[in-house]
Design brief:
By secondary structure, the protein is α+β, with helices and mostly antiparallel strands. It contains 10 helices and 19 strands.
């Protein structure tokens, strides 16, 4: 498992190259072929019997920020890259270009007219200790990326850190390659880019491979916060991988969905249904392509997704791996 190493690499959407370089070093001698396409997707092939081509997709990018202005007082204006709630960003430490540390600031609470109102990103600033625009411009430019700085930690069966969405999926794909997964299928491991900004990486994969079906390996929201009633939970950490039957923009292929469910039941692998349909994955992009590729989603449940500190149960990670491995080894869909 490479979740620690992967999560601590900064790779906001459009800036995934360091994540890609790490993955290449781990898999380059363990696959039959790999290449990087024009958009930046890393695609690796492990050959089966040549009859059925399967895409296994995990996106390399994470949510983060981009510098949009350097202000006269040396502070930095910025906007989110991907879906981030401004409330989880205030007071958090970020790093710009893997070099410059700053803190996301907002007006002190006792100076706010309406402390209960959620601020907009246009009201927030990154304070990196610069005293003037001239000083800041020597180190930072418009278009630079900023990332959360959270370090990975394990506490009993739980792991915490940033970017588990979707470095968790990336780590599982590397595990499958390193464990030399055997399948009748030709397996195309797709480490995709720019999922968080509109499922963009997956859009160019289909034309290159023309797969028979695809599976997105994701990290998804749990929503099992103490203040929420159980009927509002999407998933619950500790209950196994989440199988999606429908999400924004796509109803999951019924044959794939039911086969994954049956695989879990027949092999006594804990699983759960994702009970809320908000949010989307690259599965929708594969299905909406010109080839209409059937697609499914298997996800690791996580609390506080798209925030500086995500929580997962490591047993869910292990069972997500086990379900995917068992499905691919059995190759039940011909």
């Amino acid at each position: 498992m490479y979740l620690k190493e992967l999560s601590e690499i900064n790779g906001v959407s459009g800036n995934e190259h360091k994540v890609r370089e790490f993955i290449i070093e781990k898999i380059k001698d363990k696959v039959d072929k790999f290449w990087v396409d024009n958009l930046g997707n890393l695609i690796a092939l492990k050959k089966g019997n040549g009859k059925t081509k399967v895409v296994l997709d995990a996106h390399m990018d994470e949510v983060g920020f981009m510098i949009t202005n350097i202000n006269e007082d040396g502070t930095l204006s910025f906007m989110p890259v991907g879906g981030i709630d401004p409330r989880v960003a205030i007071g958090k430490k970020v790093i710009i270009n893997d070099e410059i540390i700053g803190v996301i600031g907002f007006k002190a609470i006792h100076l706010q007219d309406n402390p209960l109102k959620t601020p907009e990103f246009s009201q927030l600033r990154i304070d990196a200790g610069f005293s003037s625009k001239k000083e800041a411009e020597k180190k930072v430019k418009i278009g630079d990326y900023a990332s959360f700085t959270t370090k990975y930690k394990e506490i009993n069966n739980f792991a915490t850190g940033k970017a588990f969405d979707d470095r968790g999926g990336c780590s599982i794909l590397i595990d499958l390659i390193e464990d030399n997964i055997k399948s009748e299928y030709d397996l195309y491991f797709v480490f995709s880019v720019q999922e968080e900004t509109g499922l963009r990486g997956a859009a160019v994969v289909v034309e290159q491979i023309k797969p028979d079906f695809a599976i997105a390996i994701e990290t998804t929201t749990a929503g099992d916060n103490p203040e929420l009633d159980k009927e509002l939970w999407a998933t619950h950490i500790g209950d196994g991988p989440a199988l999606t039957f429908m999400h924004s923009g796509y109803v999951i292929d019924k044959r794939l969905f039911e086969t994954l469910v049956n695989t879990a039941k027949e092999n006594n692998i804990p699983f759960q249904y994702k009970r809320r349909t908000a949010g989307g994955t690259n599965a929708a992009r594969y299905a909406r392509s010109a080839y209409g590729v059937p697609a499914a989603v298997i996800s690791i449940p996580s609390r506080y997704i798209h925030s500086p500190l995500i929580v997962i149960d490591l047993n869910d990670y292990k069972n997500t791996y086990l379900l995917l491995k068992t499905f691919l080894e059995n190759a039940p869909i011909k």
